[in-house]
Amino acid sequence: MPKIHSTLGRRLVLALAATLLLPLSAAQAQDGKQLRIGFQKSASLLTLQKSQGSLEKRLAPLGVTVKWVEFPAGPQLLEGLNVGAVDIGYVGEAPPIFAQAAGAQFVYIGNDPAAPEAEAIVVPKDSSIRSVAELKGKKIALNKGSNVHYLLVRALERAGLKYSDVQPVFLPPADARAAFERGAVDAWAIWDPFLAAVEKQSQARQLVDGRELVHNYAYYLAERGYAARNPQVIQLLFEDTAAQARWLKGNLAQAAAVIAPLQGLETEVVERALQRYQFGVKPLTSGVAGEQQKIADAFHGLALIPKPIRIADALPAPQ
Fold it and tell me: What angle do CA 209, 148, 94 make, to 5 degrees?
């Protein structure tokens, strides 16, 4: 019961916040006059889009405004999407699976290309740990339900360990970094730009990144009704995202200089992270959906989610 009350409590708080803080936005969203985008500050492309105001210009002829709603990580963003605080969100692989298993209502509307190098398991520079196999019995910090949750599962599996062989310590990125640097945990599973930051600033050492283990796709999700009612808005969002992505990849140093102060990071850190991410949103293919189903099945097999789910149930209806 405590876990159920905790989950319901979080949703009620978010719902209340949405009611008290976004009354006009909610009304505008109902009539399609406002697009509310849930994003994380670590999502560099969306942070760039927000700063440039390019999407607002594309949507202005439709009479649609944009509201950017920031969340600390994917699981919290999915809670916001589920209670109606946002219309569209951008997250990694694992959060939608945990959210769907908890009954959240959303649809996948697109994904960015795989970026396996943009997440890794790291240890302090002076750690005696030299391989994933040596993590047996160790404490590993990670954000529960985030993309690195699956990275950890796969890395342990390849090293001949079970998930139960390690001690996961569930912390959001800021708290995880503090625990990592004071030695309260032995390793940290984390994504960029937090990964690039701890590598540069603390000389953290990678044990393994996502290559040959995970795809690390990033997904665009939408409230089902919003997606059905506003295909033109979504199309313009994707057109703008693609245009900004092309500029970013062709101008990494300049893009990093714009994004870095918005993320509170050094330009060099942001540029390193941008090099490891891939951008270019596309509609989900059956192959990408199948890879997402593999993650869902693995999580259910480890009892990380309470019931099996079908990714197909969270895909838009065929047009």
Answer: 135
